[in-house]
Amino acid sequence: VEDLTTSHEAALLEMENNHTVAIAILQDDHHHKVQELMSTHELEKKELEENFEKLRLSLQDQVDTLTFQSQSLRDRARRFEEALRKNTEEQLEIALAPYQHLEEDMKSLKQVLEMKNQQIHQQEKKIIELEKLAEKNIILEEKIQVLQQQNEDLKARIDQNTVVTRQLSEENANLQEYVEKETQEKKRLSRTNEELLWKLQTGDPTSPVKLSPTSPVYRGSSSGPSSPARVSTTPR
Fold first, then answer.
1. Coiled-coil region(s) at which residues (predicted)?
2. What is the pLDDT of residues 26-59, one digit of tens each?
3. What is the pTM of this model?
């Protein structure tokens, strides 16, 4: 029992020592952290104080500047009021000077607007006329196309008629040539007939005889297209 008691007391003593050491370590660590926090806090406080002082000085400068500007504006306003009181009429004349010819300017502007309106009206009329002309041009173009088609048809017909006319001319020339040949042949036969008649009447085929105008042979020969006045009885 004594051994157990001794062991227990020794264990308790060791635990107390360990606890004391742990508490000392924790206290020391806590002290260091507190010191660090205090140092950081002091630095931040000092920095804030410096920034605050700078800001205060800056604001003070701005306040001073604004105060000076305000005082300057007050002085200028006071001088301006004094000048206005002294030279009210002169200042009014100067202020109203740009508006002295306002009525004349308005009249001129009105005239310009009327001229512009007239020009716009004329332009609208021209546009309407141009639209009408455009419509007429479209109709004319359609008519021109129809006329061109008709012209082409007429050209084709003229070409056909030209071919037919050429053929008819050739046929007419051939016919005239044929008629001339027939006429010549008829004349030759007529002369031959006259010679034969004279030979039959005179009984002398070698002597030329002049026909009487009342002779039936003469009358018969004169009915030909080109009977001669004298007929040679010389045989051909």
1. none
2. 888 888 888 888 888 899 889 899 998 989 898 8
3. 0.29
